[in-house]
Structures are given as structure tokens and as C-alpha cells.
Amino acid sequence: SLETMNKSEISTVTQFVLLGFPGPWKIQIMLFSMILLVYILTLTGNTAIICAVRWDHRLHTPMYVLLANFSFLEIWYVTCTIPNMLVNLLSKTKTISFSGCFAQFYFFFSLGTTECFFLCVMAYDRYLAICHPLHYPSIMTGHLCVILVLLCWLIGFLGHGITIFFISQLPFCGPNIIDHFLCDVDPLITLSCAPAPIIEHVSHSVSSLIIILTILYILGSYALVLRAVLQVPSSAGRQKAFSTCGSHLVVVSLFYGTIMAMYVSPTSGNSVAMHKVITLIYSVVTPVLNPFIYSLRNREMKFALRQVICGMKILKPS
């Protein structure tokens, strides 16, 4: 009868299967080792930056405070996906609970969005410092820095909440296999028993809007920075500004290049394997590169990191 059909249409899926990277056991072990190494490096590198900024008083400036917050964000960004990915690689069943899957989806998207806004604030900070050096200390105060950081977190975590809630309310009654290594928007909507073109459209539009607006703002800021840098008479000053902004732009292009390929372009044409590779780049590769890119090009940061490492050696009982 119609009544029983309606009842069965209500969510009966209690868990999803994340296929991850199908392949022989040897490949699973190799991937497990590589991803674990990258995870440890990401945690170490980003924690070192946080400690360096905290312990070195010369780094208590907006640029470094933002960088430390960015590193804190990266730690959480990888932690919401990699531990589950590692367990999955060694697991035979490869299951994730319904609520676990949606929690991962929410945090992954929210932290990714927060990262977009963080990169905007960092671009704004560089723009002020290089284009308006005399007004910079009076504009970019510690107070404004705190407000901007809190806004990034707030907008990031509110931006996708509603759409993700609606996706979680869709009926999931049949297949529960996700051919991916994390709970992402397209595979989840595809598994729903009822077509939801409006939710899909809204979700895609929100993602595209956030990505396009933030990348335009970042590129605009750096274009103005570049124009100002080219007018700097001293080659040493030009060199320093170039190296700081150059390293920021490497991070931006890696992160945005991959998320745009994933969430802005029509993705139906991409193969599942391609989706996985693209996701792997922005969810695993960029967070491990960030500490290296930001700190290796920067003399003050290198010095502070050396202090952190030496400090750790001193703390160790000989």
C-alpha cells in the first residue's frame, strides 16, 4: 500500500560505505604509510608555527597572528578527514555511520570555507602593510585582527549549515556505497532516494559564490600589492615583498585551483578517480605544504622556528 511505501522511503540507511582507494592490500598499506606520514608532517609543521608565534615576541604582529590561526585551522582541517581515511584504508568493512558521515561533511565544508575567508584576511593584511604602510599600524590593530579571525570562523561555520542540514533530511533508503574517501556533497545527493534539484542547486551556488568572491578579492588585493611593489625604489624591499606575497600566492593557487575544479566547474564530466585525486590535493597536500611555503621564505619565521626546535632539544632530558 501507499502508506507502507511512504514509510519505507524514510531514511533506513544507518551507515555508508566509503570505498576509498580500491586496490590490492599492498597498495592500501603503501597509501596508509604515505598519508600517515603526511598527516604527522602537517601536525608537526603547523604546531611548530603556532609555538613559534606564541613564544617569539617579535612575531606578535597581525601577519604572524593570522598565520598561527591559519595553522590552527589547517590542523583541524586535516583531522576531520585523514584519521577516518587511515582507519578506512586498513578496514575490511570501510563503513562510516550516518551521523559520522554528515558530521565529517559539515566540518570539512565549514573548515574549507573558513580557509577561504582566512586567505582573504591575509591578503587584506598584506595589501594594507604594503600599499598603506603609514596607516597600517593604526588600521590593523590587535582588536581588528581578533574581530577578523572570529568573523572567518563564524561565517565559515554558518555558511553551509542550512544546506547540509537539508541534505541530511533527504530520504536515504537504498544504496549506501560512496565511491570516495570522504563524505562529499555530490555522492551524498546522488545516493538520496528522492531527487532534490533545488537543494543541489542551492548547495552548488553557495559553494561557487563563496569560492569565486573570495578568489576575486584575493587576486584583486595581490594585483594592487604587485603594483605597489613595482614602484618600490629599493631592490631589497621589493625582494622581501615579492617573497612574502609570492609564497601566499602559491598556497592560494594550489588550494583554489583544486577546489574550483571540484565545486565550481561542472563536475559530471570528471571521472571518479580524478575527483579523488583533486580532493586529495586540497585536503591532504596543501595543508602539509603551507607551513613550508609560509615559513621557508621568511627570515623572522625561520629564526623563530629554530628557537622552537632548539627549545625542544633543551627540554629533552639528556
What does this structure look like?
- It is built from 13 helices and three strands; from the N terminus they run αβαααβααααβααααα.
- The chain is an all-alpha fold and 318 residues long.
- The longest helix has 34 residues, at 98-131.
- The radius of gyration is 22 Å and the shape is globular.
- Putative odorant or sperm cell receptor.
- It holds the Pfam family 7tm_4.
Secondary-structure-derived class = mainly alpha
Question: What percentage of residues falls in helices of 4 or more residues?
Answer: over 70%
Question: What is the N-to-C order of secondary-structure elements (H for helix, E for strand)?
Answer: HEHHHEHHHHEHHHHH
Strand percent estimate: under 5%
Biggest β-sheet description: 3 strands, mixed
Number of helices: 13
Mean pLDDT: 87
As laid out across the biggest beta sheet, the strand order is 2-1-3
Q: Which regions contain 5 or more consecutive residues with pLDDT less than 50?
A: 1-9
Q: What overall form do the CA principal axes indicate?
A: globular
Chain-wise SSE layout:
Blueprint: H1 2-9, E1 15-18, H2 25-55, H3 62-79, H4 82-90, E2 95-97, H5 98-131, H6 136-139, H7 142-159, H8 161-168, E3 177-178, H9 185-191, H10 197-230, H11 235-263, H12 272-296, H13 299-315
Parallel strand pairs: 1-3
Antiparallel strand pairs: 1-2
Helix pairs in contact: 2-3, 2-4, 2-12, 2-13, 3-5, 3-12, 5-7, 5-10, 5-11, 8-10, 10-11, 11-12
Domain G-protein coupled receptors family 1 profile: 45-294
Transmembrane segments: 29-52, 64-85, 105-124, 144-167, 209-230, 242-265, 277-296
Organism: Canis lupus dingo (dingo)
